[in-house]
Structures are given as C-alpha cells and as structure tokens.
Amino acid sequence: MRETPEVLLSEAEIAETVARLAGEIAPRIDDDTVAVCLLTGGLWFAADLTRALSRLGRHVRFDALWLASYGDERASSGRCEVRADLQRPLVGRRALVVDDVFDTGLSLSEAARLVRDAGASEVLTCVFAAKPWPTKRAIEPDFVGWQAPNRFLVGYGLDAGGRMRGLPFIGAMD
C-alpha cells in the first residue's frame, strides 16, 4: 500500500462536481426538503452540497444518520448498524440522502429504507463517488457526482482506518 495517496480528483474538480450536482438537484427539491447526511464519511460532501444548493436558492433542512458497515476495515461487514438515528421529522417531506461513496450499496439502501419508514413523501439519493461493483446492487443513486475507479480511495470524507478523511482531494492508496 502507498504511504501517500495518488491524487485522482483535485480540490477544484471536486468543487466543480458539487456545483454540477447542485444544479441537477435544485429543480427536484424545495426548501422543505431534508438533506440526510450519512455519517461520518458523507459530512464533507453534504456540507459542500447544501452550501451549493443554498447558492442556487434552495435552503434545505439538515439531518444525519450514522450507519456503520465498514468500521475501520477495508471491506463491508455485510450488515448495517444504526449508531445514531434521525432527529428531524420527515413525515410528508421530501428527503435527499447524501453519502460520500456508493460501493456495495448496503448503507444507501438501508438509509433510504429508514427515511421512507420515517414517513418521507419522496426519497432521493445522492453520492459523490460511485465505484463499480461486480453484482447488481439493491438501489442505484438518483444523482452521482463521479464514476470512481475500483481502488482504495481516501480524502474528502473517505478514510483509511479513520485517517485522511480531511484531505481536500480524493486519492488512491493502492
């Protein structure tokens, strides 16, 4: 494994991608929409995306779900644990579930189910990066920022054992 990541997507390219996604999402939502960030990796993207939506006149509400399927491992455990649930009422509101990376699809599927079960009138999903997967996933995101390579990614919320989330770019560690 590399000691320093190979830069795959620069800070400027990330900003351009977030702005493009906000432009795609803004017409589909309103100010009553609740953006549901998947913690912890989705925090960086969710913060940038909600600010970009605000610049377009969409002032969404904010909430978070803390789901865990990886821990500090490189592979999913195959199950999703809810560590912290929603705090904001969703009944009758549109929800936009926001995550950093779409890999197995387990976290996004579980989050969409939890948000639907909480009474959301519509559930939209958005991921910054989507990695290729060899088998069909239960859910496909409504909005994808970047088609990522099948590599071990770090930065912009993505981590290696809890480290390197704060890098302003996305890099590969393999």
Distance between the termini: 5 Å
Note the overall shape.
globular
Protein structure class: alpha/beta
- Count of extended strands: 9
Number of domains: 1
Kindly describe this structure.
The chain has 174 residues and is an alpha/beta fold. It has a single domain, classed as Rossmann fold, CATH 3.40.50.2020. It is built from three helices and nine strands; from the N terminus they run βαβαβββαββββ. It has helices spanning 11-25, 43-55, 106-117; strands at residues 6-9, 34-39, 61-68, 81-84, 94-102, 122-130, 143-147, 153-154, 170-172. The strands form two sheets. The chain has a six-stranded mixed β-sheet with strand order 4-3-2-5-6-7, sandwiched between helices. β2, α2 (43-55) and β3 form a beta-alpha-beta unit. The chain is globular, with a radius of gyration of 15 Å. The model has no long low-confidence stretch (mean pLDDT 90).
Identify the notable features of this structure and list them briefly.
174 residues, alpha/beta, Rossmann fold, three-stranded antiparallel β-sheet
Please render the helix and strand layout as text.
Layout: E1 6-9, H1 11-25, E2 34-39, H2 43-55, E3 61-68, E4 81-84, E5 94-102, H3 106-117, E6 122-130, E7 143-147, E8 153-154, E9 170-172
